[in-house]
Amino acid sequence: MIWSWDYTLEILPVLAQASIVTIEATLLSFVIALVLGLVLALLRMSGGAVGWLTSAFVELVRSTPLLIQIFFLFFVLPRLGIVLDAFVAGIIALSLHYGCYCSEVYRAGLEAVPRGQWEACTALNLSTWSMFKRIILPQAIPPIVPALGNYLVALFKDTPLLSAIAVLELVQTAKVLGSDNFRYTEPMTIVGLTFLVLSLVSAAGIRWLEKRLNRRSVR
Amino acid sequence: MSEATGNQPMVRFEGVTKRYGSLTVLDDLNLEIGRGEKVAIIGPSGSGKTTVLRMLMTLERIDGGVIWVDGEPMTHMQKNGGMVAAEPKHLRRVRSKIGMVFQHFNLFPHMTALGNCSEAPVTVLGLPRREAEERAAELLNMVGLADKKNHYPAQLSGGQQQRVAIARALAMRPKIMLFDEVTSALDPELCGEVLQVIRKLGSEHDLTMLMVTHQMGFAKEFADRVCFFYKGKIAEQGVPQELFVAPKNERTQQFLRAVLEAV
Asked: Which residues in chain B have Cβ-Cβ distances shorter than 8 Å to A135?
């Protein structure tokens, strides 16, 4: 028999435990990426040397593989005296990588806000902080929710890369279970299904949020 | 530093120059606007008339000269006996005396009429929201939109949106109001309601008003003085009766002829 239900029941609790690591890594990295992306987009728009340096950084990160970045943080930084826990290194790599992608999305959103809105803020003497918080971001963000949501799902599906530095997330756990028991079918199938279900759930969540935001802005 | 007195003009452009690359939009402009004076700026497109308002609202950087507002330099500040470019804090303080209404309204689409008119009073002036909303409601009432205060811009006509924009600018209690072609984006039948509001403002408040307009009839009836701009300079200025009835400058004559023919 290809599929063993006994084995499945035996490994399910272990995989459930590992899925918590995957979900933690995803949510933590995505929240940081969302904040970092906005900061990078604003720095980039500020122009001057800061803007240029930010652009260069974003391009560097977007043009190199995530796996290399993970390896760099985990294996190269210790040589410079910075030793990171595997999970921490993984979170940093994921949030940096996706932060840079998100910054491009934010930039598109910010640039889509008509110039007249910025000018009205100046004419009303709003501070830079109030301008972004009350006027610009509430208009810039709803249209980019779908694009940001795509990155949430993409980030989630990239978490198995953390298995390369032995973070015990879903795929790494499945690999260990498989090699211990010489059975890969059950753990890999369960992991694949878990990713499928969670991706579909997040996509549905994003669509719900998108609809809600649209209802608010287009009355 | 602020030796503002009643005798000084409300606004003074002193040798103001503005360039976009090699194109000179304002060329050594000198212009004084008295307290409570209502000045209309007319002229062909590209003559720099809108730039005058945008410079005064600090939406454009100045390339030469100084703009004075209410007796103190706005674009510059005195420091160690000399004049240096104004810091943001100084700009913000002086700018608070000026309000502007735009050709395309520029209302905040995600806020109701009431929200549009109370946002800046709360975040900039620090008024409690309740008080700001009460004042906003009064202003909306003044522009004839008491029943539309909970409407979003997309639910209002162009003329109504522009009246909300006027109320929004007034909510900041400016001393100077700038009107930048405020009826140009409106259907002809909606212009009247907006001009009516401006007329009312002019008669009930001692605001200094500066308007760029293509509505010659309104300029003639409303303005204390009309400035005709041509190629970044004031080619001719005077009281409306003189300038419209017997223009001296050849360019003014040409322009008025062309505008009146179009009607």
From this structure: 108, 119
